[in-house]
């Protein structure tokens, strides 16, 4: 199944709703966005747009000082939901989810999200091929993102969580 260029009226309605969420009310209902891209029964285009909006909203709404910033409870809930979705069948969506997780990891790992690396490593050791592939993809993006941090304190933290 591939992303389609044709937009149905349902997709158009959801696009308008996303635009309103992100322009008028800040990040919108993040749990709803999370539920949309994790719902495999919805149209692929809708799910892909939801993960893109979520990923692009991380820089704008994840930090504490941002206008319309997410609460710590919401962030905790979203982090927990993100690391349970390694069974995405669509490659484009799986890649965007991996990049999304890496963006959150850059801000929160390992202080607020210490379980991310151990869960990724455990998923890589699994026997399900799709789950293993998606976990490796996510691990690649997370490692690449964390390794790009420049501050000495961040580099020390990265060394602490990386296996020796």
TrEMBL record:
Gene symbol of the encoding locus: IPO11
Keyword Transport attributed: yes
UniProt entry keywords in alphabetical sequence = Nucleus, Transport
- Species whose genome carries this gene: Ataeniobius toweri
What name does this protein carry? Answer: Importin-11
The UniProt record lists the Importin N-terminal domain at 11-88
Q: Does the keyword Cytoplasm apply?
A: no
Q: Name one Pfam family in it.
A: IBN_N
SUPFAM superfamilies reported for this sequence? ARM repeat (SSF48371)
Record localization:
Nucleus
């Amino acid at each position: 199944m591939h992303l389609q260029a044709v937009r149905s009226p349902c997709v158009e309605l959801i696009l308008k709703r996303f635009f309103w969420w992100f322009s008028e009310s800040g990040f919108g209902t993040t749990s709803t966005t999370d539920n949309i891209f994790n719902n495999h029964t919805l149209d692929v285009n809708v799910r892909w747009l939801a993960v893109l909006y979520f990923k692009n909203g991380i820089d704008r709404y994840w930090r504490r000082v941002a206008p319309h910033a997410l609460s710590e409870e919401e962030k905790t809930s979203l982090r927990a939901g993100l690391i349970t979705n390694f069974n995405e069948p669509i490659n484009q969506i799986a890649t965007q989810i991996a990049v999304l997780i890496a963006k959150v990891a850059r801000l929160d790992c390992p202080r607020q999200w210490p379980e991310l690396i151990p869960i990724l490593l455990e998923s890589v050791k699994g026997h399900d091929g799709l789950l293993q592939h998606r976990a490796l993809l996510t691990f690649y993006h997370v490692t690449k993102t964390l390794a790009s941090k420049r501050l000495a304190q961040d580099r020390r933290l990265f060394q602490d969580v990386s296996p020796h």
